[in-house]
Amino acid sequence: MYLIVGLGNPGRQYENTKHNVGFDAIDYLIEEHHIPQSGVKHKAMYGKGVIAGQKVLVAKPLTYMNLSGESVRELTDYYKIDPETELIVLYDDISLNPGQLRIRKKGSAGGHNGIKNIISQLGTDVFPRVKIGVGEKPKNWDLADYVLSPFGKEERAAVDEAIEKAAKAVEMIVQDEIDAAMNTFNRTNKN
Fold it and tell me: What DSSP character marks residue 136?
């Protein structure tokens, strides 16, 4: 079984913000694959279903971004998920243009506090991740203010398209085709 986690912050005030694209991607997967809501447990909203013939558990940690690892750790422990082969994390990345994707098999947190906490809790940085570009913060902006701000209309359209691509990448990854997903989606946008 795969555990697919989207990072974000719970609460209406965070909906449609840059930091919540991981939640948005999970919502898209739930809708696309008709995954029923199973409830709230392990500090997350979660559901069980099937994607591309594979049993999956999709989750949105309710711990707030910086403590996402607490929920991920509880889920991996309880469901006996091997993070290195059965965990996929979807989240925002400010070093990518809006709508750009970057899939990695492992790596550092790159300054992302949610990923930093997951690495700390799991004791490994080896787990597949799908980064969804939200664009670089403008000069003189505070980083927290930027990632907690909503998208502009054009950015939102590009990010919504990227979320669809991220869902297709997840479908490939659960079929053990992460290299193909990387080759397909790790292209830079020529804007």
Answer: P
Residues 27 and 33: their CA atoms lie apart, in Å, by 10
Q: In order of start, what are the domains of the chain with their CATH numbers?
A: 2-185 (3.40.50.1470)
Q: Looking at this protein, which amino acid is placed at residue 143?
A: L
Residues 19/9, Cβ–Cβ less than 8 Å = yes
Query: Could you give the CA distance from residue 133 to residue 101 in angstroms, rounded to a whole number?
Result: 6
Angle between helices 153-174 and 21-32 (to 10 degrees): 60
Averaged pLDDT for residues 91-117: 95
**CA–CA gap between residue 178 and residue 156 (Å, rounded):** 26
What is the DSSP secondary structure assignment for residue 15, as one 8-state letter? T
Q: How many whole angstroms separate alpha carbon 32 and alpha carbon 75?
A: 23
Residue 92 CB contacts under 8 Å (≥ 6 apart), including other chains? 7, 18, 19, 20, 21, 22, 112, 131, 132, 133, 134, 147
Q: Distances in Å between the alpha carbon of 13 and those of 10, 16, 17, 25?
A: 8, 9, 9, 18
Active-site residues, by number, are 19
Q: Which residues contact 19 (CB under 8 A, 6 or more apart)?
A: 7, 8, 9, 65, 92, 134, 147, 148
Residue that the structure tokens 């970057």 belong to = 102
Q: In the structure encoding, which two tokens stand for residue 175, read together?
A: 């079929």
What pLDDT digit, counting tens, does each position of 36-92 carry?
999 999 999 999 999 999 999 999 999 999 999 999 999 999 999 999 999 999 999
Which residue in 119, 96, 120, 130 sits closest to 2, CA to CA?
A: 130
